[in-house]
Amino acid sequence: MWFEPLVILGVGVVISFGLYAHYQPKISKMKKSYNEFNSKVRENLINMSDNERKEFFSNMPKETKSFFQGILNNDYNFQGIEEFQTSQYHLQQIEHMHQDQFQDFSQWAMDESLKAVTPFDHGGYVQGPGFNPSDTFAHDSMNHMDHINSGMDSFNGF
Questions:
Q1: Is the pLDDT of residue 93 over 60?
Q2: Sign of CA dihedral 111, 115, 118, 124
Q3: Whether residue 86 is found in the same domain as residue 133
Q4: pTM higher than 0.70, yes or no?
Q5: CA–centroid distance for 43 within its chain
Q6: What average pLDDT does the segment 12-33 reach?
Q7: Could you give the C-alpha distances from 96 to 62, 66, 84, 99, 102, in angstroms and in order?
Q8: Are residues 82 and 36 in the same domain?
Q9: Which of 33, 64, 101, 116 allows an S-S link to 93, with CB 3.0 to 4.6 Å?
């Protein structure tokens, strides 16, 4: 009876050692990937101008900003799987910001395109010869072609 706890303890040690031997290479690979990722992010942050970096950090949540500033200042250590989850969370924050910017731009482009084809009386832009250089050029070109065609018509009737 007294040897049963020793057997259980021995089995526990063997299982622990087996798990350690199995997962240690995977953890080392994850650590290497995490360090490579941080090095690339840090390099990109360093290559930014001060204005670009300021703009990059300006719209971030405080936690995400702190995360990227930690990478920039070389203040990161691999603590385990939680680091990947944290990285993923912050990258999702950046992706969300990019999606918002794209949606804002798309909405602006749609609004501008609608204004371009809407009459002025209904909220569109003032258009036509004399207001817009491309409209003026097109109008002048058409008048010139009409003048040439009318001259050709009178010549054909001669």
A1: yes
A2: positive
A3: no
A4: no
A5: 18
A6: 68
A7: 15, 17, 18, 5, 10
A8: yes
A9: 64
